[in-house]
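Duplicate of #3305? Posting structure anyway:
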């Protein structure tokens, strides 16, 4: 089979190589899955660079979430077990963690439903307890993680402010349903948030960026607001001023979604049921901006690393032969 292999750490476009390899052999409790679509995530970039919290042995195949097909023909969502990731024709995954792919979504959309939407659901509902009528601010609102949070925020009845970088991403954020869109390249984010909220600030701030975005969050969070830290796409991990959190009465919440797979997997299943229901009634639908064949996976991962994509990019092996997903 064909699979992308990383033999040394570095930029995805330089270190990912498409090779002919033997299909992976499932271990105890694992199943072999035919990859119908694999969604590109920023952690795939970090894996290639050697900066992710998980460091699989070299060589490995990146690709952390897929829509796959079981030997008996079921369409499922899975997190492949590294080092046999999803940017390949076949991957392996833990059988106990397989989730049914929603009928309302195609393969590429189903592949993009898992990590970003689970992170959004756990962050907004389990950690930040977002309530209807509150204001939610989402950094990188047109990205894969941010776009999921926007849709989940709107589904929960929140007023959503999206912060993006560039006119194209601003247009995408509006289409996603943001009530207010702020282009950080053309506007003063802090001033614009205060104007949009009448000086009150945002009740919940969803931050997958870190760096300057976190500094803006601390200046725009409302009294008794919650800043939700879900990642550091900027590459800069902020050092919060805890005296500021004390003086202003706000909470700083961390979320590592992957921990729920080991600490409380039943919650992951419950979350998937909620997401499936939301997808069935059209309240959420992953924004898949590109569907590329397997041969273009390295370039796609690099574009995500460069921050030039909107929504999710999906790698669809069947496109190599001109087939539709």
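Output from current build:
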């Amino acid at each position: 089979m064909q699979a992308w292999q990383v033999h040394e750490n570095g930029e995805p476009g330089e270190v990912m190589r498409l090779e002919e390899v033997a299909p992976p052999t499932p271990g105890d409790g694992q199943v072999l899955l035919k990859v119908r679509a694999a969604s590109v995530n920023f952690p795939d970039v970090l894996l290639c660079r050697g900066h992710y919290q998980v460091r699989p042995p070299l060589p490995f195949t990146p690709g952390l979430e897929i829509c796959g097909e079981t030997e008996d023909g079921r369409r499922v969502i899975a997190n492949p077990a590294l080092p046999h990731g999803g940017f390949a024709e076949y991957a392996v995954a833990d059988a106990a963690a397989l989730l049914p792919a929603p009928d309302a979504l195609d393969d590429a959309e189903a592949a993009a439903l898992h990590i970003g939407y689970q992170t959004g659901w756990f962050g907004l509902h389990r950690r930040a307890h977002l309530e209807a009528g509150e204001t939610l601010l989402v950094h990188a609102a047109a990205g894969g993680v941010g776009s999921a949070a926007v849709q989940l925020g709107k589904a929960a009845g929140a007023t959503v402010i999206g912060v993006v970088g560039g006119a194209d991403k601003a247009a995408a954020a509006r289409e996603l349903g943001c009530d207010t869109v702020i282009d950080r390249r053309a506007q003063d984010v802090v001033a614009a948030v205060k104007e949009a909220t009448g000086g009150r600030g945002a009740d919940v701030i969803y931050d997958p960026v870190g760096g300057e975005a976190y500094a803006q969050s601390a200046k725009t969070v409302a009294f008794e607001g919650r800043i939700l830290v879900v990642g550091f796409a900027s590459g800069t991990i902020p050092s919060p001023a805890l005296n500021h959190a004390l003086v202003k009465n706000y909470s700083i919440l961390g979320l590592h979604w992957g921990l729920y797979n080991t600490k409380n997997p039943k919650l992951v299943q419950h979350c998937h049921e909620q997401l499936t229901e939301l997808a069935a009634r059209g309240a959420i639908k992953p924004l898949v901006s590109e569907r590329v064949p397997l041969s273009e996976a390295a370039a796609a991962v690099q574009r995500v690393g460069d921050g030039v994509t909107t929504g999710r990019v999906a790698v669809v092996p069947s496109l190599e032969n001109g087939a539709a997903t």
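Confirmed duplicate; merging threads. The mean pLDDT is 95. Residues 141 and 162 are 5 Å apart (CA to CA).
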